[in-house]
Design goal:
This protein has 375 residues and is an alpha+beta fold. The protein has four domains: 93 residues, conserved putative lor/sdh protein from methanococcus maripaludis s2 fold (Beta Barrel); 93 residues, Efflux pump adaptor protein, beta barrel domain (Elongation Factor Tu (Ef-tu), domain 3, Beta Barrel), CATH 2.40.30.170; 48 residues, Beta Barrel (OB fold (Dihydrolipoamide Acetyltransferase, E2P)), CATH 2.40.50.100; 62 residues, Orthogonal Bundle (Helix Hairpins), CATH 1.10.287. The protein is 24% helix and 40% strand. It contains three helices and 19 strands. Strand 16 and strand 17 form a beta hairpin. Helix 2 runs antiparallel to helix 3. The N and C termini lie far apart (95 Å).
Amino acid sequence: MLKRMILMLAVVIVLVAGLGFVKYRQISAAIAQGASFAPPPDAVTTIVAARETWPSTLDVIGTAAAIQGVTVSADLPGTVAKINFESGQPVQAGDVLVDLDTRQERAQLAAAEAQRDLARINFNRTQELVKQGVTARSEFDNTSAQQKSTEAQVGEIQATIQRKTIRAPFTGVLGLRQINLGQYLAAGQAIVPLQKLNPIYVNFGVPQQNSAQSLGGRTLRVTSDDLPGATFSGRVTAIDSVINETTRNIQVQATLPNPQGKLRPGMFVQVQVVLGASRQVVTLPASAINYAPYGDSVFVVTNLTDPKGKMYRGVRQQFVKVEGSRGDQVAVVSGVNPGDEVVTSGVFKLRNGAAVQVNNKVQPPNNPKPKPEDT
């Protein structure tokens, strides 16, 4: 019985050892196969880098502002007797916009003028009597003071009547009327906005490192998505004296001719400031740049060698320096040479030395002046 149990135990041990050996061989073969496995190459698109001449410009966002803009208001309280304008109407400096009721002031003016005329007569009479030595000098002084007082009263009432005739302070375009006929206006109450549109200001901010380059009346171009095909040219006319502590930008003001009034105060515009002479750069699609905190880079396609000495088509990560963009393109000033084949799509999945397969049937956009369909 004991011999049979020992025999059975020996058979089990041999069987387990055999199974373990077979499994060991299978695992070793799988490991060897996995070590020699090469992942399939990543499909990418590429472009051959070329050098282009770009103007040295700075592209920023700006806001149009009127050179002169006010809200015309009532100087004195009164009732609206006549409205002489329509909303949106162009006006000239001095045009009468609103007449307030001045009946009371005109009645006071008539009385004051009568007092003035009487004071003049008394003054002239007293003056003759003083020359003849009939009247005392003190009486002449009283009539003289009375005449000047009545003259001042007439002038004061005339000024009040003039202040109740509200005129356009400068040539411009009116906004929406904010009053009605017969309405009582308090002192300072708004009547209508008035903006001078030609010429017009464009205000924008530039980084502090570019502030010095923006001085000296540099030329600029202004466009707006709301005015397709329209381009406005002007010059930098003022630079702010301080830099914003939050954005580290300095405010710049340009003056542009606006004869047709297409640019309106508050309009959002694109500004391109000419900074200097043109420069030579290597242009790449924006999709080719791998932006990262430690530095921007691209992947250059080249011939590489694997550990076994076999040559394959792969990528080399190359750090670059970019300065400026134009449409879909980015200007590379260092890191890429003309003639390099650069990956333009799929860069997010690549690593240094990865194998790639180039397929340029569908290319990413690379237009310096794109026109998106949804603009």
